[in-house]
Amino acid sequence: MEKKSKSKFIRLIVYVLLYIISYLVNRFLYAHELLSVIMMACLVLFVAGVVVVVLSMIKTNNHRKATILSLFNSLVNYIAAIIILCWSLSICGVNVNTIVTSVGILTLVIGFGAESLISDLVTGIFMLFENQYNVGDIVEVNGFRGIVKSIGVRTTQIMDVGKNIKIINNSDMKNILNRSSNISIAVSTIDIPYPTDLEKLEEKLPALMEEIYNKHTDEMLSAPKYIGVSELGSSSITLKFVVEVDEDKIFSAPRVLNHDLLLGFRKLGIECPYPQIDVHNKND
Known about the structure:
Layout: H1 2-26, H2 31-57, H3 63-91, H4 96-101, H5 103-113, H6 115-130, E1 138-141, E2 144-151, E3 155-159, E4 165-169, E5 177-178, E6 184-192, H7 198-215, E7 225-232, E8 237-245, H8 252-267
Antiparallel strand pairs: 1-2, 1-5, 2-3, 3-4, 6-8, 7-8
């Protein structure tokens, strides 16, 4: 993410410098103006680089603070580009104040062409103040589920479990499902044979649940709970269990619970059932 943003920033600066150089060439290559522009650009890039490095050195586990740092990092690049552009024009003798005065008229003209850009910026500002989601949160947007890796002035980057990064414009971040806001519930089911003494098994389940929790406190927030019989199948009884977990454990916790339930039931003398067919012979 940082490499992409830096490459875009450098590309923008190169375009600005090329424009200034071409302008100076048209003005018979005034060496002192060209040198001033280069020195100014280097100074601004150096200051911007220092700010980016300082921001990257700030480590925090707080998602809200990480979001603000990500936005500041994005803003530094935009501000540096604007400073270089305005300062370069000023060095070349262009009256920047006149341009600023004309912004009111230009805004109306540019606004039609930059409607999406403005929408992204405004949405990003409201998102920040409303605290809808932060860097590190697990969100789902239009069916895409992943961790928010960065939040910029215009875009938000989300990475899924396959390490694929989706870049979404802030204005398109609608109907967001923030899965990190509350505790998640992992569900597990296991089948037992019909001949099993269900009442005796249910008496032994609390001890088994505590044993499973004590072995996996890193996966579970509390001991698993036995909900009851969820289904009466053709060859088995289905028992349902739930456990409170963090959202990032929503897939791994059921696997752990399934594994330990199977081993625990085997210790209790209960094997998983298999389909059975009763065959009746009329001659018997």
